[in-house]
Task: inverse folding
């Protein structure tokens, strides 16, 4: 069609427009009919855009027609210009109308394909819950933050120096035999307790006072049975200040264990040995299963061992830069698994790590 129009204008160079005007108008009308027909037959939005480009783009039919306006007489330019303008408006209106219809049809088809049958039974979503170890850890954190302690975390891969030597356990100390350690090399270990955090925190804060922190986290030892795991969780507690006494330690621990197990529970402290505390004490809590009358849970003693504690050893304070003649402190370490097993009546620690839904759903 475009080639016919170009050929006609070549003829116009020799002839007047007046004798050929009817032919030109017929050709334009034919082009309009062809364009409208193509738009009507467009099946998709992409097809319509191709048709629009063919007629209305910079290299399309309408711009090419406008190039020939200079070859007609001034008298006939308004007539030809109006025909071309009407041609353009008609095509654009038809294009927009067809485009809207196609989009509506595509949207309706999509809605039909995605239609939901509201009569079908619904699918119940299972809502998870926190693991018992997480519940215990969060409870302990809340207890201590409410009385002014700060929660800090340390490295799970630790230097031997901080894991042992800074806690008054040199390389030849027999206390190292108490902890069967995973060594990565001679100087790097998987930490056996969260106590290295207290050394690092005192290094960071010295000479500031007070130091009041708890340090929860994973620890690693080569143990594996119903009451031990190669990986387990501890919370280390540390308080350093002037005039801290053993009575402060006992008061804090009594508050902790009553908050966890109930106000009726009692504690007792037994002399013990830890290289990084002096004096040291094992802490027992009264058995809630038998009210201290004796049962299998407490070994028929009425008491259950729960944690280790003591006053920070003067050597540990000195290595951190504190003067043990001026400041004192206490520290303790408690196993989160130990608390969870006593609190929820779990008799095998391995259940906490098996990911068995039959067990976990009970919480």
Result:
């Amino acid at each position: 069609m475009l080639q016919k129009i170009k050929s006609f204008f070549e003829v116009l160079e020799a002839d007047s427009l007046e004798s050929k005007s009817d032919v030109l108008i017929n050709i334009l009308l034919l082009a309009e009919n062809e364009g409208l027909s193509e738009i009507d037959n467009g099946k998709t939005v992409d097809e319509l855009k191709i048709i629009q480009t063919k007629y209305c783009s910079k290299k399309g039919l309408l711009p090419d027609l406008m190039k020939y306006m200079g070859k007609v007489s001034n008298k006939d330019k308004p007539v030809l210009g109006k025909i071309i303008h009407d041609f353009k408006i008609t095509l654009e209106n038809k294009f927009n109308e067809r485009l809207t219809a196609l989009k509506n049809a595509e949207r309706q088809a999509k809605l039909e394909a995605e239609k939901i049958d509201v009569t079908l039974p619904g699918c119940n979503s299972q809502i998870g819950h926190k693991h018992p170890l997480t519940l215990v850890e969060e409870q302990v954190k809340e207890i201590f933050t409410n009385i002014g302690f700060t929660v800090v975390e340390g490295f799970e891969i630790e230097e031997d120096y901080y894991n042992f030597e800074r806690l008054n356990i040199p390389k030849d100390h027999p206390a190292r035999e108490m902890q069967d350690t995973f060594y990565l090399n001679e100087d790097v270990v998987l930490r056996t307790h969260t106590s290295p955090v207290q050394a690092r925190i005192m290094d960071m804060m010295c000479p500031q006072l007070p130091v009041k922190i708890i340090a929860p986290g994973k620890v690693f030892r080569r143990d594996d049975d119903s009451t031990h795991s190669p990986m387990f969780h501890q919370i280390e507690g540390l308080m350093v200040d002037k005039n801290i006494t053993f009575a402060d330690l006992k008061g804090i621990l009594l508050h902790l264990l009553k908050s966890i197990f109930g106000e009726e529970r009692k504690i007792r402290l037994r002399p013990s040995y830890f290289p990084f505390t002096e004096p040291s004490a094992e802490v027992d809590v009264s058995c809630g299963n038998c009210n201290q009358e004796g049962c299998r849970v407490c070994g028929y003693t009425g008491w259950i061992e729960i944690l280790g504690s003591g006053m920070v050893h003067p050597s540990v304070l000195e290595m951190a830069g504190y003067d043990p003649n001026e400041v004192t402190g206490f520290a303790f370490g408690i196993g989160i698994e130990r608390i969870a097993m006593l609190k929820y009546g779990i008799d095998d620690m391995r259940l906490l790590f098996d990911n068995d839904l039959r067990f976990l759903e009970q919480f």
User: Anything to note?
Assistant: The beta strands are 150-151, 157-159, 183-185, 188-190, 211-220, 231-241, 267-274, 277-286, 303-312, 328-335. The mean pLDDT is 83. The CA atoms of residues 244 and 328 lie 5 Å apart.
